[in-house]
Amino acid sequence: MNKKQLWTMLEIIGMFALIQGTVGLVHKFTGWLGWGLVERVPFLDGHEVYGSIALVVLAFALFAAAESQKKA
Questions:
Q1: Which helix H or strand E contains 8, and what residues bound it?
Q2: pLDDT band at 50, cuts 50/70/90?
Q3: Euclidean distance between CA atoms 38 and 20, whole angstroms
Q4: Contact predicate 18/37, CB 8 Å
Q5: How many CB atoms lie under 10 A from the CB of residue 36?
Q6: Cα dihedral angle (41, 50, 35, 15), rounded to 10 degrees?
Q7: Fewer CB atoms inside 10 Å of the end CB: C or N, the chain?
Protein backbone atom coordinates (compact mmCIF):
# COMPACT_ATOMS: atom_id res chain seq x y z
CA MET A 1 0.00 0.00 0.00
CA ASN A 2 1.58 3.26 -1.08
CA LYS A 3 1.04 6.70 0.45
CA LYS A 4 -1.61 7.77 -2.03
CA GLN A 5 -3.70 4.70 -1.24
CA LEU A 6 -3.21 5.26 2.48
CA TRP A 7 -4.46 8.84 2.36
CA THR A 8 -7.35 7.83 0.12
CA MET A 9 -8.30 5.20 2.70
CA LEU A 10 -8.13 7.84 5.46
CA GLU A 11 -10.46 10.06 3.46
CA ILE A 12 -12.92 7.19 2.95
CA ILE A 13 -12.88 6.36 6.67
CA GLY A 14 -13.31 10.06 7.45
CA MET A 15 -16.32 10.29 5.14
CA PHE A 16 -17.87 7.22 6.78
CA ALA A 17 -17.31 8.72 10.25
CA LEU A 18 -18.78 12.06 9.14
CA ILE A 19 -21.88 10.41 7.69
CA GLN A 20 -22.43 8.22 10.75
CA GLY A 21 -21.89 11.10 13.17
CA THR A 22 -24.26 13.34 11.27
CA VAL A 23 -26.90 10.61 11.02
CA GLY A 24 -26.58 9.98 14.77
CA LEU A 25 -27.12 13.65 15.58
CA VAL A 26 -30.04 14.00 13.16
CA HIS A 27 -31.67 10.90 14.62
CA LYS A 28 -31.21 12.03 18.20
CA PHE A 29 -32.64 15.51 17.67
CA THR A 30 -35.34 14.85 15.04
CA GLY A 31 -36.06 11.11 15.12
CA TRP A 32 -35.32 10.76 11.40
CA LEU A 33 -32.71 8.44 9.88
CA GLY A 34 -32.61 5.66 12.46
CA TRP A 35 -30.15 3.55 10.48
CA GLY A 36 -26.91 4.85 11.98
CA LEU A 37 -24.34 2.77 13.81
CA VAL A 38 -24.20 4.97 16.91
CA GLU A 39 -27.66 3.82 18.00
CA ARG A 40 -26.60 0.18 17.65
CA VAL A 41 -23.51 0.28 19.88
CA PRO A 42 -24.53 -0.99 23.34
CA PHE A 43 -21.94 0.86 25.46
CA LEU A 44 -23.09 4.21 24.02
CA ASP A 45 -26.63 3.67 25.29
CA GLY A 46 -27.73 7.05 26.64
CA HIS A 47 -24.61 8.78 25.28
CA GLU A 48 -25.40 8.77 21.56
CA VAL A 49 -24.91 12.53 21.18
CA TYR A 50 -21.37 12.33 22.56
CA GLY A 51 -20.55 9.39 20.31
CA SER A 52 -21.89 11.21 17.27
CA ILE A 53 -19.94 14.37 18.08
CA ALA A 54 -16.80 12.28 18.55
CA LEU A 55 -17.29 10.74 15.10
CA VAL A 56 -17.69 14.15 13.47
CA VAL A 57 -14.54 15.44 15.19
CA LEU A 58 -12.66 12.28 14.16
CA ALA A 59 -13.77 12.81 10.58
CA PHE A 60 -12.44 16.38 10.49
CA ALA A 61 -9.16 15.22 12.04
CA LEU A 62 -8.79 12.54 9.37
CA PHE A 63 -9.55 15.05 6.61
CA ALA A 64 -6.97 17.46 8.03
CA ALA A 65 -4.33 14.74 8.25
CA ALA A 66 -4.96 13.59 4.69
CA GLU A 67 -4.90 17.14 3.36
CA SER A 68 -1.68 18.06 5.15
CA GLN A 69 0.10 15.04 3.71
CA LYS A 70 -1.13 15.78 0.20
CA LYS A 71 0.57 19.17 0.31
CA ALA A 72 3.86 17.72 1.56
A1: helix 3-30
A2: very high
A3: 7
A4: no
A5: 22
A6: -110
A7: C
